[in-house]
Amino acid sequence: MLIEMNVTNFRSIRDLQSFSLVKGKGDELLTTNTFATSAINGVDLLRSAAIYGPNASGKSNLLQALQTMKHAVLESAATLQRGDKLPVTPFLLNPNTRDMPSEFEVTFMAAGIRYQYGFAATAERVHEEWLLAYPKGRPQRWFGRVWNAAENRYDWELGSNLTGEKQLWQKSTRENALFLSTAVQLNSEQLRPVFDWFKETLRMANVGGWNSTFSASLCEKNEKARIMDFLHAADLNIDDILVESRPFDPTFLPEDMPEPVRNAILGDMKGKQILDIKTIHKDSDGNPVTFELEDESHGTQKLFNFAGPWIDSLANGRVLFIDELHDNLHPRLVQFLVQLFHNKESNPNNAQLVFTTHETSILNQDVFRRDQIWFCEKDDSNSTTLYPLTDFSPRKGRENLELAYLSGRYGALPFIRSLKLVQ
Fold first, then answer.
1. Which of 54, 323, 364, 417 has the fewest CB atoms within 10 Å distance of its CB?
2. Residue 209 pLDDT > 70, yes or no?
3. Which of 351, 345, 353 is nearest to 325 (CA)?
4. Between the CA of residue 134 and those of 169, 210, 277, 375, 382, what are the distances in Å?
5. Angle of helix 298-316 relative to helix 224-233, nearest 10 degrees?
6. Contact at 8 Å (CB) between 26 and 290?
7. Strand ranges (E), 78-190
8. What is the CA radius of gyration of the chain?
9. d(CA 6, CA 18)
10. What is the model's pLDDT at position 250?
11. Contact between 309 and 319 (Cβ < 8 Å)
12. Is pLDDT at 136 greater than 90 in this prediction?
C-alpha cells in the first residue's frame, strides 16, 4: 500500500513535490473509494488517484521518479559495476540545481508494517539514504548514511533495531549502490519486505502500457476464464483466445542484420518460446473465425494487454502506476478500469491505482472523491508543480469538476496561442 511519495530536483521537478494517498476530509464514497489500515491509527487510504495537466507539465516525470527509485533499488547492487552511472537527472534549467542530488522518498506499508524509505543521489554516487520503520507505531531508524565530502567518506548510522551482518553490508555497499539493495543481496531477511515492495507490489507502465506476454501467460496457466471475463465486461466482442507456444525461429531475422546485433538477439532468445495469440469471433452463422491479435484495433489490443496486469494487481493488492491511461481507450472503458479498483468484490485486497490522464469525462464526484484528483503544471521557471483539487475547496456533490477544470478554475491547462504562419 502506498501512503505518500516525495520528489525533489528530478528532471522537470525542481522543488519538493509531494503526492499522497491519505484520505482527506469528507465522507463521500467511503465504502468504495477508501479503505482502513490497521498499521496507521485513524488514517484511511485511497484506492485510486488521477493526475491531470497539459502536455509537458511533468506528469510523466512524477511517475518516472518512482520508476527511477524502483530501478535503483532492484539494480544498483545487482547489475551496476563500480563507476557505472545511476539513472538520475537533476533539474537542468537552474545552475544551482544541476550539480545537486535528486531526492526520492516513499512511505508505504509492507507485511503489515509502515516504512519510510528514501535516498538522494547524483549520477555518480548516493549522497544520502535512510529507512524508518514503524513496527509498533513509533518510528525506529533502522539505518542512515550521509556522504561527508570534506572527509571523503560516509557517516553511517546503523540502528539497534536492525539485525544481521550490518558491518559486512556497510563495507560491501559501493558509492553507486544502495545499502538496502546490498543488504538484501547479502541475505538480510529483515529488509526483504522493503525490497520486495518495490519488486513485487509496485507496478509501473508507460503510455504504451504492457505487451501481450503476461495476459497470454495467464491464458496458458488455466486463467483464461478470468481474462475472458475481463474482456467481456469491457464489452469486447471476442468469443475466445488461443495461445500457442513455438520455439524462436532465427530465420525470421533479416539477412542484412549486423552480426553483433544478430548474435545478441540469438543469445537472448536461446531456449525461449514465442507466443502466438489469436482471437476468435463468430460469423453470422455462428462459426468461429480466427484473427491475429495484431488485426484487432489498438484499443482492443491494449485492453487485452491490460487484462493480465489488471487482474493480477486486483487479486494481489498491488500498487499500479499508469501513464496516460486514456490512450486508445473510450472514456467509458477508462471509467470501467478505474471502477474495478473502487469495487470491493473486484478489489478485495486494497490494490491502488494512480494514473495520469487527459480524459475529463470521469472528472466528476460520482467517480472520485475530491481528494483523489491532482493537477500538474509548470510555473514561470519551467519547473513542475503538483497540487490537489482540495486546495480549491470544491463544494461536495455540487460542483461540476469537469466544467470547472476546463474553464480554468484549477489551472493545469495548456495556454493556446494563435498561430502566425511565416510567409
1. 417
2. no
3. 353
4. 22, 34, 46, 31, 38
5. 120
6. no
7. 102-110, 113-121, 126-134, 140-148, 153-158
8. 24
9. 5
10. 73
11. no
12. no
Alpha-carbon dihedral sign for residues 17, 19, 25, 28: positive
Every domain of the chain and the residues it spans = 1-209+323-423, 211-314
Q: At which residue does the C-alpha cell 519488486 appear?
A: 199
pLDDT tens string 279-315: 999 989 999 999 999 899 888 888 899 899 999 999 9
β partners of residue 371: none
What is the distance between the alpha carbons of residues 400 and 27, in angstroms, rounded to a whole number?
18
Say which residue, 423 or 45, is predicted with more confidence.
45
Residues 6+ apart with CB under 8 A from 354: 2, 19, 21, 48, 49, 50, 51, 63, 319, 320, 321, 322
**Residue 142 confidence (pLDDT):** 98
Q: Is the pTM of this model over 0.85?
A: yes
Question: Quick one: how many helices (H) and strands (E) in the chain?
Answer: 11, 18
Task: Give 59-113 pLDDT, tens digit per residue.
Answer: 999 999 999 999 999 999 999 999 999 999 999 999 999 999 999 999 999 999 9
Contact indicator for 376, 25 with CB cutoff of 8 Å: no
What's the mean pLDDT when you consider all of the chain? 91
Contact (CB, 8 A) for 197 and 133: no
CA 250, distance to chain mean position in Å, is 34
Considering the four listed CATH numbers 3.40.1360, 3.40.1000, 3.40.50, 2.10.70, the one that applies to the domain covering 1-209+323-423 is 3.40.50
By three-state DSSP, how is residue 275 classified?
strand
Give the C-alpha distances (Å, rounded to integers) separating 165 from 170, 171, 250: 9, 10, 47
Percent of the chain with pLDDT strictly greater than 70: 96
Helix axes 331-341, 298-316, angle to 10 degrees: 10
- Strands in 240-247's sheet, in edge-to-edge order, are 240-247, 273-282, 288-292
The span from the CA of 257 to the CA of 388, in Å, is 50
Starting at the edge strand found earlier in the chain, the sheet holding 153-158 runs 17-20, 2-8, 102-110, 113-121, 126-134, 140-148, 153-158
Q: What is the DSSP string of 317-369?
A: T-EEEESSTTTT--HHHHHHHHHHHT-TTT-TT--EEEEE----TT-STTT--
Distance in Å from the first CA to the final CA of the chain: 57
Triad 288, 294, 297: Cα angle to 5°: 85
